[in-house]
Amino acid sequence: MSDTKVLVLLGSLRAASINRQLAELAVETAPEGVSLQLFDRLGELPFYNEDIDNDDVAEPVAALRAAAADADAALVITPEYNGSIPGVLKNAIDWLSRPFGDSALKGKPAAVIGGSFGQYGGVWAHDETRKSFGIAGPRIVEDLKLSVPFKSLAGKHPRENADVTENLRDVVGKLAAEVA
User: Fold this and answer.
1) C-alpha span between 17 and 15 (Å, rounded)
2) Which ranges of the chain would DSSP assign to H, the alpha helix?
3) Where residue 156 sits, what CATH number does that domain have?
4) C-alpha gyration radius of the chain
5) Which residues are CB-contacts of 54 (< 8 A; sequence separation ≥ 6)?
6) 85: nearest Cα among 139, 40, 136, 123
7) Considering only CA atoms, which of 139, 176, 166 is closest in space to residue 2?
8) Which of 20, 36, 44, 154 ranks highest by number of CB atoms within 10 Å?
9) How far apart are CA 85 and CA 83, in angstroms?
10) For the chain, how many structural domains are there in total?
11) What pTM does this model have?
12) Which of 80, 174, 180, 164 lies closest to 130, judged by CA?
């Protein structure tokens, strides 16, 4: 039996971001039989514009859609920017929502997690991302949540926090189990 393929979308472009560290930790600790693929090109996507969404779409968009089509599920890991979803992630969701009604992630399970500086670890952004992504086509697994307040990490890498590591691995395993 082949691995369950999970597409990982990262809402932060910063090389040293804690959310990137969470994404890397998810890849490292994925349960057996689950492979995670981080699509690390969201910053290359042009702003969504229906005028350029055609047969000759930009290469990064085609690559994103191909990665989504190849995946069995999606894991979004995102911070919270100004109480909401980062623009780069919203743009990716807009590209992934097309063609309308038949997106590459249509019906596939998806979960949204991440961390932020606020005391709630980015819950508002995670809720907004679930709403937006759910409209775009994937089947959001509402009970798979992990919001990490950065202060809980005490300046350390997430892998040094046993609870975060265990909860992250649990989310990935349960997301993979949602694949029909």
Assistant:
1) 6
2) 18-28, 59-70, 87-96, 123-136, 162-177
3) 3.40.50.360
4) 15
5) none
6) 123
7) 176
8) 36
9) 7
10) 1
11) 0.95
12) 80
pLDDT tens digit at each of 180 positions of the chain: 479 999 999 999 999 999 999 999 999 999 999 999 999 999 999 999 999 999 999 999 999 999 999 999 999 999 999 999 999 999 999 999 998 888 999 999 999 999 998 777 899 999 999 999 999 999 999 999 999 999 999 999 999 999 999 999 999 999 999 996
Residue numbers of the domain that contains 105? 4-178
Residue identified by tokens 């599920």 is 73
Q: Which two tokens stand for residue 30?
A: 């994925």
**What is the C-alpha separation between 103 and 118, in angstroms, rounded?**
33
12: nearest Cα among 107, 129, 142, 172: 129
Dist. CA 172–CA 168, nearest whole Å? 6
CA distance 139 to 107: 5
Report the alpha-carbon distance of residue 49 to residue 98 in Å, rounded.
11
Exposed (0-12), middle (13-18) or buried (19+): which is 106, by Cβ within 10 Å?
middle
